[in-house]
Amino acid sequence: MKSPNRASHWVAILAIAGGIYTATAQVNDDTEKQKETNAIAAQTASQIRNALQGAKLAAAANDPKEAAASLSYDVHMSDCEDHWVALYRRPEDRDYTYGFVYIDPQAGFTLQYAGHFTIDDNGTFHEAPNALPPDKFNLKIRLQGQNGIAALLPPQALAQLRLPEKPDWLKFYEDKADTVTHKVRWGFFYNDIGDSRRAIDYLESAYKQNPNAPRLVFELTYAYNAVGRPGDAIRISREEFARNPKDELLCREIAFAYLHLKNYKEATVQYQACIALLPDSDTSRAEKSELAMNLAAAYDHLGDAPNRDAWLQKARDWAPKDSPVYKYFHPIGQ
Fold this sequence. Notes:
With 334 residues, the protein is of the alpha+beta class. It has three domains: 6-171, no CATH class; 175-245, Serine Threonine Protein Phosphatase 5, Tetratricopeptide repeat, CATH 1.25.40; 262-334, Alpha Horseshoe (Serine Threonine Protein Phosphatase 5, Tetratricopeptide repeat). It contains 13 helices and seven strands. Strands 1, 2, 3, 4, 5, 6 and 7 form a seven-stranded antiparallel beta sheet that branches. A hairpin with a 3-residue loop joins strand 3 (96-104) and strand 4.
């Protein structure tokens, strides 16, 4: 089993402005028009989500028009903070969806939808019809865990589409926190979107300034585990966990690190401590079942079959229907 999925702790949000959308008062007064706009906004958001989950970098081959326009799908969303981007486009799509990627200090990585464009045979960018014009509608997509591929818009695209290098509204999202808090916050957001290598740059810098900053040790431990540095995860977290032995999330990261260091004895002790921290409730059953699977794996490596089998049974008993562990024990067709 892998390290706990961050999505299980932080809920990804699809935000279309104030929960649904913002629009002019005239549209809000027209119920039928509002329903139509809601449908268009929902469809657009769905298309954007699909694009964010589209091809891998290696599969995003540029077509001749894109090459002529210097448009290349060679980055992920986490590479695009404060930049205009084109989302992944399937060959059969008529136009390109584009927007601006920024970090909201309260909500994290966000794509501000801007509209659509086309590229002609000469590599020139042209604005395409947009059913949600940005002067009337405000569509935002939160990018937690959605580090899809994108193409940075080249300078000529900004000129031809009449876009500023950075939109004027970006100033309202300036992070006014102190330096350490800013670094921890940005480290969290980069962890959250799935770019822990970049998160480490922020978090290690913050650690040098103030190793006791709130939330810092967990985020740095998580990042080290995510990039395959379990030794550093243990080094950075052991003292913090001794001070806060009821920190269940940090407990999991330490257990995961021990498991990947092949320190199986320590892993068994740590995983049991993590399970003991979880309440005996329906909501925690999925988490307990995953931890029990990892604990069983550690006992298996130690050659302790009785404990392995006992924890596998507990994992099976705790697993809610349709959870990953439940599906492991109840494969489709068997």
